């Protein structure tokens, strides 16, 4: 029997490594188990998010946007560049370097905080014992007072489009293309499909996104989703809604996708196909039959509001439990669980978790949307301010989209902030901070915002809630 720990964390993604660091900071003897290996065959911490998710995709999104601007948007500023080209291998190399720096950074943070890292596969046994299966097949058992399951998620696979990581790829493979495919298909018009589709579209691919649902971005506010559809279509994404993929056929370096939509049976041929139809929790060999921890009907680890499982002292966080599959949600749950183990009464506000789509412009929201509030029978006032009326947005040549603030008609309390446009993710965070402190639209409208900034759109939308916007004509109250 190896050392006994106060806390053993299985998984070193944004939930696991944050939980381990916070537990160690609180004086708990902590271990963290991770098996993921990077391209160099060495242990890579940081989970999906850091290695093959949020971070690398943002690196490619930023590179591809800069290429698009240099190629198509510099002339308006009076800048001429001559012919612009993209070295895809160099772009991928830069992305890999960023990932390497950050995974190394996580290793350094765990070490600095005194967390013991074990390389291998972690499995929860009975009695809060954790078995580590190392890369050479040998095993070691750790005893723990508390265990945190943070095993994350993996891309969903669908039978009609089996991934081979050559012609048909998942979100991981889509980060590794060494050249720009001429014709690119994407199955799934969710966050991942739209982000990856827009990367390769900017670099010159003809992109078709095939989405089974009839509605676009169902989780978003309908007004925002409508605007997003308009913007993405204008940018060249061909988005097909109500289109269900029935089969694929790979021949050499291309793939024919068969699907059914309102027009009947269709087929399209692509050079590459990305399958981005969501993610599912990783619970493969995570729990021994007698561990006592239960899964729900969808395969997630069952937990209460504070991430406690059915076994006292065993917790689960992040993508392996209910709720939004977002890195920042996982990290916050990790902090809350570590603090609860240490005896603090920490809690998490699940009502104010921001969601972001890192296309350009970004789309982001926090709180409730208009259709949710109407379904709940809440009377609301809505204020919208378009970036087309923002001096800062005009100066930046970035005027698509709007800020939308929804407030309770009776109390004026802000219930939702929805932004599509420049710096949407940062602006929504302003809304989240304000809402955490119970802001009213009037409060936001009375604050002094620096001029000229994108943030002024937030102030103007707040003023518009009560018909007091200065820089657009206010809607007449009926």
UniProtKB/TrEMBL annotation:
FAD binds at residues 58, 122, 319, 325-328. NCBIfam families: lipoamide_DH. Its EC number is 1.8.1.4. It is found in: Cytoplasm. This is Dihydrolipoyl dehydrogenase. InterPro entries: Class-I_Pyr_Nuc-Dis_Oxidored, FAD/NAD-bd_sf, FAD/NAD-binding_dom, FAD/NAD-linked_Rdtase_dimer_sf, Lipoamide_DH, Pyr_nuc-diS_OxRdtase, Pyr_nucl-diS_OxRdtase_dimer, Pyr_OxRdtase_I_AS. Homodimer. GO terms for molecular function: dihydrolipoyl dehydrogenase (NADH) activity; flavin adenine dinucleotide binding. Residues 353-462 form the Pyridine nucleotide-disulphide oxidoreductase dimerisation domain. One of its GO terms (cellular component) is cytoplasm. GO terms for biological process: 2-oxoglutarate metabolic process. The active site is at residue 451. Binds 1 FAD per subunit. It is an enzyme of class 1 (oxidoreductase). Residues 5-334 form the FAD/NAD(P)-binding domain. The gene is lpdA. Pfam families: Pyr_redox_2, Pyr_redox_dim. NAD(+) binds at residues 188-195, 211, 278.
